[in-house]
Amino acid sequence: MEKSTKKLIVYYLIAAALGILLHFLFQWLPNPVTALVAPVRESVWEHTKLLYFPLLGTALLLNRGGQGIGRAPWLLSAVVACVIMLGVGYLYHVTLRGESLVVDLALYFVLLVVGFLLPRVLWPLCEWPGTDKAAVGLAALLGALIVWFTFFPPEAALFADLSGAVRTFLTIPV
Questions:
Q1: Residue 114: CA atoms inside 13 Å, Cβ hemisphere, count?
Q2: Model pTM?
């Protein structure tokens, strides 16, 4: 097995573990700081944090010092994985009213794999001029939306607490 493949597998396992820990972080330490990176309720939108932050961390770690294939494919991969999670999560939880923990875990682990495989697929696209700036912009926009909607979620099914319909701002101790 190649050294880079082993490295990716190790980073995948670390990212998966981090995502699992993030799921419970707000329950363990409820405050506005942990609310920024951990789901504060059981909405489809809040669970994008479980993909976004581990993939963002991986992008920064694997490409520090100019090594790796570059940050742009990783940032685009994180955005794509989160968008897929929102679409599939909405379809499964809101449209089909699914509630299976097994399906949720499978979706998380599969989309994390997608997030790790997509950078190699997106790498040729990122050679186009301006793609790196667009990737940073999209990732920053998604991060800003995650922060904004943590504290001010709209009244929409994507943001609804599927375990009890509690507005996020009211659940975050200030």
A1: 18
A2: 0.86
